[in-house]
Amino acid sequence: MAKHHHDHSEHAGETLVEAARTALTGAGEQWTGMRSDVFEELARHERPASAYDIAENLSKTRGKRVAPNSVYRILDLFVSNNLAMRVESANAYLANSHPGCTHDCIFLVCDECGEATHVDNDDISKAVRGVAQGADFKPERPIIEIRGLCAGCR
Ligand SMILES: [Zn+2]
Ligand SMILES: [Zn+2]
Ligand SMILES: [Zn+2]
Asked: Model pTM greater than 0.70?
């Protein structure tokens, strides 16, 4: 389903954390203990997680209160460095399984169970960016989400 013309690798588990760390430090940012904890917590979620969910879980595992605001800031940093993706219609985040390369991911969000998977199709995202450019608008971040039912919920 994914269409790629480059060396694209999707990661999971430990190799995903490693790929995220490499991407962030490669961008000149520090991989602090807190950032690492937030990323690992995010990566554990198969469904999009809110900053509030992550803060709540981290407060438990770290044994002291973690403010949702500090989680928000870290998630923002992750999004701007391609480590995480924001699922707008769910107001939540997903770990980016391909932190090593940039795509305008297309999210498939299940209305029943909330699961969000994603596909990459650069032809479609290029066309969407082209529509904006054609209207004299500079596209920064196309958001393409499809709501529906996943295979498990049909
Ligand atoms: Zn790729
Ligand atoms: Zn993608
Ligand atoms: Zn579902």
From this structure: yes
